[in-house]
Amino acid sequence: MDLFDDVQSSKLEIARDAYLLKGYAQENEEVLLADLAAIIIQAPLRHMMTKMGFAMSAAMTNCGALGWTSDRKGYQYDVKDPVTSNLWPKMPISFHQLANQAAAEVGFKDFQPDACLINQYKMGASMGLHQDKNELDFSQPIVSVSLGNPAIFQFGGLSRTDKPIKIPLAHGDVVVWGGESRLNFHGILPLKLNTHPILGAYRYNLTFRRAG
To answer: Bridge-partner residues for 154, per DSSP?
Structure first.
């Protein structure tokens, strides 16, 4: 039986081809958090630089065949961690199954992610409105998993000037978007002070993509 077969979720459509699955990842948080901790040991979190030379407020790492990185040269995917020169840690079965099944839950069948970007937010950290557009195949969805402290997710339109909706996200919530919304702008408002019983002062976001 797959790890996520017994998950009971509330599916909410937030935009065309975009859905919020409330609490979808809670059922198997123990294995997810153990696998997350193991990845961070292998590929430590770091604050990547933007093209303008500023450090991002969220700390990041990756797992999977490809990892998303940012530096003064721009945004790209690479098979190796630029900090350690090692291959990125393999994507755990728990991660892959969660992403695959969450995508299928909303109609994106047979999603096979090859990249998982892990963001760690603490109080005040944020992510500005942006598009996920460094991938090769925009027919594949994005699956975003929230763990730890709550946050406000902004989901806009195809233009940066489109007013975004604000969606409260809690521990275990999963957002999936693709199709007509695949290139919509999205981001995270500055994290407020809070304490999660397991993850303390932090929020972790797992973003699954088919990059190659």
So the answer is: 166, 187
Contact assessment for residue 82 and residue 3, using Cβ atoms and an 8 Å cutoff: no
Give tens-digit pLDDT for 66-105. Answer: 999 999 888 999 999 999 999 999 999 999 999 999 999 9
Residue 87 · residue 79 · CB < 8 Å: yes
C-alpha pair distances (Å), 50 with each of 53, 61, 148, 179: 5, 15, 25, 28
Are β-strands 74-78 and 67-71 bridged in parallel, bridged antiparallel, or unpaired?
antiparallel
Q: For the chain, list the domains and their CATH numbers.
A: 14-209 (2.60.120.590)
* Contact assessment for residue 48 and residue 70, using Cβ atoms and an 8 Å cutoff: yes
| Strand 203-209 with 151-155, pairing | unpaired
Contact 204, 173 (CB under 8 A): no
pTM of the model: 0.94
3-state secondary structure (DSSP) of residue 23:
coil
Angle between helix axes 29-42 and 93-105 (nearest 10 degrees) is 130
pLDDT tens column, 11-28: 999 999 999 999 999 999
